Structures are given as C-alpha cells and as structure tokens.
Description:
The protein is mainly alpha-helical. The chain has helices at 7-19, 21-35, 42-55, 63-71, 79-95, 100-110, 116-129, 134-141, 153-190.
Amino acid sequence: AGDFVTEDVGHRIIQVVTNNESLQIYAVNKCYKLLQERVIFEPVLRVAGYLVGEFGYQSDIEGEDQFAAIHKHFHESSKETQCMLLTTYMKLGNIFPNLNPEVVKIFERFEESEDPELQQRAVEYKVMANFNNQDLMSNVWGTMPEFPEREGGFHQKIKTADARHAVRTVKQDAMTRKDDEEEESSSEDDS
C-alpha cells in the first residue's frame, strides 16, 4: 500500500511523530526495518529519510547502518527525493561525525549535477560539512521544532458531521420530550 500513500499522509505521519516524543524511537526503528527491503515505495522512503535524519540519534542502530539503509535506495529515487535525502545525509553527518567523510564524497559527486537543486544543495552542504564551528552546525542541523497543531480537511469534515449529528440529536431529544409531555398531559386529562 506504500505506493498509494499521498504526500499529505506522509506529512501527517512526520507531524505526528515529530510532535510525539514517545513515538520517535519506535518510528526510526520501524523505518529502518522498512529500509531493509530491496524495493521501497518512494513516499515511504521520504518519510523514512526525514524521520531517520531527525531522530536517528535516539536509536541504538549505528549511524553507519542507518545511512547505508537509506543510501541503498538513493539512486532509484526521483530528483525531489534525492534532494531531500541529501539533507538527511547532512543531518546524519552532523550527528555521526564518522559519517562525514562519506557524506562529503556524495556531495562532491553532485557538485556538477545537471539538476540545479541537487547541485546547489551539494555545494552548500559540502561547505557546511567542512565547517569547524560545531555549535553553529548543531544549531543549523539540530532537530526541527514541533509542528503547530492544526486540523486538516479530514478533521474539519468530522467536526462538521459531529455538529450535524449533535443538532439532529438535540432536535430528536426535544421532539421526544414534547411527545412525552403531550402523553403525560393527555393521561392527566383522561384521569
């Protein structure tokens, strides 16, 4: 079903995991397991790349293993996903300094890419990967902040349906009470 995961669903998964610290290690470990597959659907790769880049440091899985699991899918993915994965590599290189030389080699390969987005990221990330101010790099490449809670269209539809149901229920309750009162009134009149 991974090929039917829409971008909105992927973003929502990322939002839920980012905003729930208790899910982060579980999500990284689950993503790592999915990345072991020979073939992975691209939306799943995007979600896995983001979550491993953000929260992989919390897992017991070695950084090299996380990197290798993601990178084996890199060349089969679209340019858009490759751009995102370069960002993941930069984050992993910052979190796991022993990965930095391998990450820099990848950036060097894309410095002259025909794709301007890949090229720009590769050039900029290579400069940053070689930067010596670790405090600054930790600030730039640290974990993203939580997403603001907002409701999507699905939640709004549920609220609208709930509101309509509540109005119907109130009307039905009012009619039932009215019927009960009329019955009581006619019973009293009969007596």
